[in-house]
Amino acid sequence: MIKTEILGTNPTDIAKAAAMLQRGDLLGLPTETVYGLGADARNAQAVAGIFAAKGRPSFNPLIVHVSDFAMAQQIGGFDDVMSHLARNLWPGPLTLVVPVRPSRVADLVTAGQDTVAIRVPAHPVAHAILTAFGGPIAAPSANPSGQVSATTAAHVMAGLGGKVAGVVDAGPCAIGLESTIVSGAQGGTILRSGGVSAETLAALLGHDLANKTTPSAITAPGQLASHYAPKGTVRLNVHSPEPDETYVGFGAMDCDFNLSEKGDLTEAAANLFATLHALNAQDAAKIAVAPVPETGLGAAINDRLRRAAAPR
Ligand code: TXA
Ligand code: MG
Fold first, then answer.
1. Does residue 47 fall inside a structural domain?
2. Which domain holds residue 178?
3. Quick check: 217 pLDDT over 60?
4. β-strands 233-235, 257-258 pairing
5. 214: pLDDT confidence band, cut at 50, 70 and 90?
């Protein structure tokens, strides 16, 4: 165990955070999607520390965070389709999987594959850290492997306190769901649903993208069926919960937790992981969730809920 320093967002603390990364230490950092567990993507030792801290199987590749498209192009090769997405949706909750250039990031980041996942986060504090550090930051979500993603600094501390040098606290994440992952294969293939909807991508490219987000097809970890699992069992699409169930609602209804009383999918996404953390905090043993529409961000919300409900 090491002492974990909680850092603010003032210039002195941002400089401290950048120095931790330069030293090869691990840093919990905010993004607009979820908190990341960051390390210098060029430092194999530091990247190995991420896997150790998360207890994550080491064959899972990591997302590389960069400050802008120019830095992204130094690490990966972007064809016309991927450039179009990058120019229109970065900074933002979109990760692009492109061919990796040799020797730009540690092999451990790509798990030895010939592609690399890259994104430019939209969070001003993430941007400040990336600029102060001046290099690429490898960062998976800042939660122990298989557990619910962290959307506050307190979630990061609960899961990884004592294992990281610092956590930069910038308050709760605005989006609250991981980024959408798109690979360049087949003119654009969605590998994970997330903060950018399939509808937005289709509107931008003028066609629907191939979709490999069904659990059987994914080659990425969100694929582990029980990923995002809370401690209790989860039942989905429930209209009338049993008396012993804790009821998570959507829209105007009687329930214990409501993802969005207004029935707003963006608000529900932002509340999702915090709600799962809150259910854990009160040791909810049986959880029932009301139906959430499958449109827009609802696809990503339902994906996470199905994984939370999967047998384990
Ligand atoms: O919003 C997010 O994406 C957050 C924040 C911190 O940026 N990060 C995040 O990272 O969700 P993580 O490690 O929990 O999920 C990264 C996903 C994994 O499913 C991984 O397998 C996939 O990205 N991935 C990384 N590199 C890949 C590659 N070369 N090909 C296919 N999938 C890849
Ligand atoms: Mg994750």
1. yes
2. 5-223
3. no
4. unpaired
5. low
Instruction: Answer yes or no: do 204 and 75 share one domain.
Output: yes
**How many domains does the chain divide into?**
2
| The token pair that represents 200 in the structure block | 């937005």
* 93: in domain: yes
Question: By C-alpha distance, which of 284, 41, 296, 258 is closest to 177?
Answer: 296
C-beta of 30 in contact with ligand 1 (< 6 A): no
Q: Is 183 exposed, middle or buried (0-12, 13-18, 19+ CB in 10 A)?
A: buried
Rounded to whole angstroms, the Cα distance separating 226 from 306 reads 9
Q: pTM of the entire structure?
A: 0.88
Going from the Cα of 61 to the center of ligand 1, the distance in angstroms, rounded, reads 7
- Summarised one tens digit per residue, pLDDT across range 230-258 is 889 999 999 999 999 999 999 999 999 99
Q: Write the pLDDT tens digit of every residue in 77-120.
A: 999 999 999 999 999 999 999 999 999 999 889 987 899 999 99
Of 56, 65, 178, the residue with max ligand 1 atoms within 8 A of its CB, to mutate for a pocket test, comes to 178
Residue at which a domain ends, from 205, 223, 241:
223
User: Where on the phi/psi map is residue 159: left (φ > 0), alpha (ψ -120 to 50), or beta?
Assistant: alpha
Which residues on adjacent β-strands are paired with residue 138?
39, 64
ipTM over 0.95: yes
- Statement to judge: residues 241 and 190 lie in one domain: no
User: How many other C-beta atoms are found inside a 10 Å radius of the C-beta of residue 101?
Assistant: 13
What is residue 293's DSSP assignment? Answer: -
